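A reminder from the course coordinator: this example appears on the midterm review sheet, so study it carefully.

Given structure:
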């Protein structure tokens, strides 16, 4: 088997604790829609995240317009899919889902991390269906040009390829799937406490299930697989065309995630934050109606929780600016 052959991610067979399963293109996708009016706000989650992780934002947005959260195929409660996938595939799937549940365009897309790259790809492919973009530390094709060498994706991929030269294709494949931290009981309990803290205000049935599923091997592997083609996504976004002229706000989070602090030196963390800040400022400046905002006390992975108020304000600001 070639080492670039995608793997099949598994998904749970039971119903999500909130939302429903909508058939799209022969697969069922978890989707939760609330509120009314437009433009609709659509949340595009990061890798290893699912739609219900953004329930705090969803519920608040639904107070003043339509809000949609969902799980991509192969993640969360949606049906299995071959992972990784192209950004175009993810964007087309989202468009088909929104049409299937009869949410009219144009949309205000809120993309986080990898989901930010997918949201921009949606805007490249379907510019007339995008009213605005809110990008929360988005995956971007210029990452390597701004970040220090140890964090550059092409450098990491080249180093990994060199290290794997003497390993058979099948061994590489198995390593990619199982390349996860050893889930000792102590580590599981530590993660459980962190997740429970972030989801503290979620309804009990949703919080409890979310915490356990985030600790499951299936969900952990889906996150690893979904982001295993980042170098290819760099090229796809670079070749996809510019960002359309719509209102845009880009957030940089200057806080440090616990996982980053465990594996990165203070110097590398500072260099990473400086690079991100410059990259996202440049992205905001690349369109006429772009704006860059900085959150000093929020980290990358949980920006939408730690910076909830700032994100909601940005959504309101963008809705005030869109062409209606």
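Designed residues:
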């Amino acid at each position: 088997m070639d080492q670039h052959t995608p793997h099949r991610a598994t998904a749970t067979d039971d119903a999500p604790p909130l939302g429903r399963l909508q058939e799209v293109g022969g697969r069922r996708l978890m989707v939760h829609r609330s509120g009314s009016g437009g433009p609709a706000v659509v949340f595009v989650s990061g890798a290893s995240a699912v739609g219900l992780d953004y329930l705090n934002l969803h519920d608040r947005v639904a107070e003043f317009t339509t809000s949609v959260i969902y799980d991509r195929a192969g993640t969360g409660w949606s049906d299995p899919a071959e992972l990784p996938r192209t950004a175009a595939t993810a964007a087309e799937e989202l468009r088909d889902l929104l049409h299937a549940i009869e949410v009219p365009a144009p949309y205000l897309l809120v993309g986080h991390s990898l989901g930010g790259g997918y949201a921009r790809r949606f805007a490249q492919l379907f510019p007339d269906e995008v009213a605005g973009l809110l990008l929360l530390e988005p995956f971007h094709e210029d990452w390597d040009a701004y970040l220090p060498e140890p964090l550059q994706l092409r450098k990491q991929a080249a180093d990994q390829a060199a290290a794997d030269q003497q390993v058979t294709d099948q061994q590489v494949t198995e390593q990619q799937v199982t390349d996860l931290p050893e889930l000792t009981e102590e580590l599981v309990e530590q993660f459980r406490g962190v997740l429970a803290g972030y989801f503290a205000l979620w309804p009990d049935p949703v919080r409890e299930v979310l915490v356990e599923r985030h600790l499951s091997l299936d969900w952990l592997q889906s996150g690893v697989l979904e982001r295993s083609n980042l170098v290819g996504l760099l090229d796809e976004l670079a070749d996809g065309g510019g960002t359309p002229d719509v209102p845009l706000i880009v957030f940089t989070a200057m806080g440090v995630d616990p996982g980053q602090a465990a594996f990165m030196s203070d110097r590398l963390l500072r260099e990473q934050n400086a690079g991100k800040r410059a990259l996202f400022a440049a992205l905001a400046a690349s369109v006429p109606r772009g704006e860059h905002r900085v959150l000093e006390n929020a980290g990358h992975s949980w920006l939408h929780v730690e910076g909830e108020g700032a994100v909601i304000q940005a959504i309101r600001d963008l809705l005030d600016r869109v062409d209606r």
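The chain has one domain: 7-321. DSSP finds 14 helices and ten strands in the chain.
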